[in-house]
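Hi everyone, sorry if this is the wrong subforum. Our group has a chain we'd like a structural model of before ordering constructs, and none of us has done structure prediction before. Sequence below.
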Amino acid sequence: MASTSGWAEEMSFYQRLQLTRSAGVDEVNLSYRRLGLEFHPDKSQDKTKTGRFGAICEAYTVLSNPKLRAIYDTFGLNGLRNGAPKGDVAPPVGEHGYTEGWTYHGDHRLVFRNFFGGENPFDDLFPKKLGDEFDILPVLEPRTKKIQEPPVEETLLLSLEEAYLGCMKKMKLERREVLEPGGTSSKKSKILTINVKPGWKEGTKITFSKDGDQDPNRIPSDIVFRVKYKEHPRFSREGNDLVHMAKISLADALSGCIVELLMLDDRTLNIPVSDVVCPGYQLRVPSEGMPLTKGGGKGDLILTFDVVYPTSLSENQKGLIRQGLTSA
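Answer:
Right subforum, don't worry. Here is the predicted structure as tokens:
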């Protein structure tokens, strides 16, 4: 039997249609008319509502049929589906004196079409019969309206040099294309060109609209590339700043030094360090970071330091260091 909805598993057919057991034929029809329109899948993309539509159609199929309803009222859902003892209310009798079990066919749209008398669920409902009584005006669109497939996300790997300078990337895409006539399809390659702007950050998205697999019944998905950086041997990026860890000796940390650094655009910077480099010390060099994508300018270069301590010292060296630091 076709599944209806987890929403209805513990509900009686009367509860599904919001009826009491004493409801007459007119009340059953009126309730189905209202609920069928409210939860029709052409009106809502909400999967919860779509599942309720199936449960409502199953309930209406039983409660609108006098014989099925009589068995259901007397023997419940198990008796209806598995067969009940024969009696005046029963349909054709199967083996061992029990009625033949009833199974819902699962075609919810067929139930709806038979009720409203048309192939299109909303034929004849607007404007002559119901007007906009059930708020269907916003959904009176062709039933053949195509739905777009979800976006397909790919990774665009960039080196920091490419993100710093900007570049052109050509991405090869394999996608299914529909061949005319007949709607048959085949895999074909397509080259997508991405003009990387200087300063693009990780997470930047580049969207190619409707360049996904083609399907005669659906709108192709968008292809979305998300920027991700390759690991760099000298720099990391923090916001718009470039961070470099300089390895220096203890002597350089105490007495000053020049840090020579090859930048992303192949320039070499000679950066003087005149302060004593203590734990946590950073040196900021203005306007030597990543380009700003808006407004021009650049972030900063931030130097952090890894001070390399000697593994051993002679007594004479220890004495000189102690003397120098004490006199300071």
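For your construct planning: The radius of gyration is 37 Å. The first helix runs from residue 13 to 16.
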